[in-house]
Design brief:
single chain; 350 residues; 14 helices; 43% helix; globular; disordered C terminus; RNA-binding
Length: 350
RNA sequence: GGAGGUGUGGCCGAGUGGACAAUGGCAGCAGACUGUAAAUCUGCCGGGCUUCGCCCUACGGUGGUUCGAAUCCACCCGCCUCCA
């Protein structure tokens, strides 16, 4: 899922996004609640009509903002109260209000409100946090059936639960048990991509993914680097979202099969080689030109780089799906992993 | 011709006796970024070294005052503005 927090992938039109073959876009309830506000989206006929994106949309609930905006919120058993990062306004999210808001926008996949705990965290604190997240999940699941009063009369398509429990196997297992008992349309693994080391990240996937029902989608929230995705796919994860390809593109880092290209580096000043492989959006764009666009701060630089990175990621996922279909995932994953390891400029992260 | 102003590191621009190799910004070089408070942030940025320190060269030029000068004085050079 390309990430379009405010309803758009930064730098791309909906046409450009669908041209890349994107199937599902992620948006964010916290950010959309502040601007333009759910009422506005409701009045305009829901999030698809509002954004013009006709493909599926998943909205994150604001649980991640409990972590990322930790200094601007207060959590209690009933929910979370944010102080807007824009103007300090109070914004109250409860499990029920979050479900209702996503119904009103008519999103395809709604996420329950969860508490994304920080890292590091003790097992005792993680357990307290998980207990709250679990109660919220039950509340959200009950609220899900209630039809909201909305202008658009829309409903969300499905509700996903979010497995928390930090790095602790006992807690992750308990979380899975609670959530599967509530019968969600899909299950997400949350609480990663909060600054933890790769070993922890991978351990969480390995201890959680196998416990999730095989017939429901498994969504790993917030990841990741190509290496992270490769690892998670081999462990049975189906769905990903990550700001990395889009954000890094805007910051001048391009993902390729050979590793990472930092296009702003002086070495690309007169590099005639194309940015992307044949058939990709930037197959006809030289590294020298893209370097020039970044150096001169042309808006087109970040836009083209975003096209490139999203294409690379979506193509990467396409190849993995193909590998799964052919029953050759482990072969493919092994080959890809070694390529990233041997990349000319190294992998995406240490 | 007269009057006034000004000259600082690649550029712009602070600094008007010691805390100054000299605030900022730009440019330059590199790094970071994982459910987006991010077209953002961080580091380096006169030269050399044994780089939490030392040495050299530096605030238009020359000379001087002073224990000490980018800062004060004299002369010279350049540039700008106004008047004629």
């Amino acid at each position: 899922m390309p990430v379009g927090t405010l309803g758009a992938v930064k730098g791309l039109s909906v046409d450009a996004l669908s041209g890349l073959g994107a199937q599902l876009m992620l948006a964010n309830l916290y950010h959309l609640s502040l601007r333009p506000g759910i009422d506005v989206i409701d009045r305009l006929g829901g999030i698809h009509a509002f954004t013009g994106w006709s493909g599926p949309i998943l909205t994150d609930s604001g649980g991640f903002q409990i972590w990322s905006l930790a200094s601007l919120r207060k959590v209690d058993d009933g929910g979370v109260t944010f102080r807007s990062h824009l103007d300090g306004d109070e914004l109250r999210f409860t499990p029920e209000s979050v479900v209702a808001a996503q119904h009103r926008m008519g999103v395809d996949i709604a996420m329950v409100l969860d508490e994304c705990p920080p890292w590091p965290i003790s097992e005792a604190d993680a357990e307290i946090s998980l207990a709250r997240t679990s109660r919220w999940a039950e509340t959200a699941r009950r609220a899900w059936e209630e039809t909201p009063e909305s202008v658009s009369g829309l409903r969300a398509g499905g509700l996903f639960g979010i497995v928390q429990g930090s790095v602790y196997p006992r807690l992750r297992a308990r979380a899975v048990e609670v959530l599967t008992g509530l019968d969600f349309a899909g299950y997400a693994v949350g609480g990663v991509s909060v600054g933890e080391e790769m070993v922890h990240r991978h351990a969480v996937v390995e201890m959680t993914a196998p416990l999730l029902p095989a017939e429901r989608p498994r969504y790993l929230m917030g990841l990741g680097t190509p290496q992270d995705i490769l690892h998670a796919v081999t462990w049975g994860i189906d769905l990903f979202d990550c700001v990395l390809p889009a954000r890094n593109a805007r910051h001048g880092t391009l993902f390729t099969d050979q590793g990472v290209i930092k296009i702003k580096n002086a070495r690309y000043l007169d590099d005639p080689r194309p940015v992307g492989p044949p058939g990709s959006p930037l197959a006809g764009t030289s590294r020298a030109f893209l370097h020039h666009l970044f150096r001169t701060k042309e808006i087109t630089g970040p836009v083209l780089a975003t096209l490139h990175n999203l294409h690379h990621y979506l193509d990467f996922m396409r190849r993995l799906r193909e590998g799964i279909k052919l029953g050759k995932l482990s072969e493919l994953a092994g080959a890809m992993a070694s390529r990233y390891a041997d990349g000319e400029t190294g992998g995406a992260s240490a």
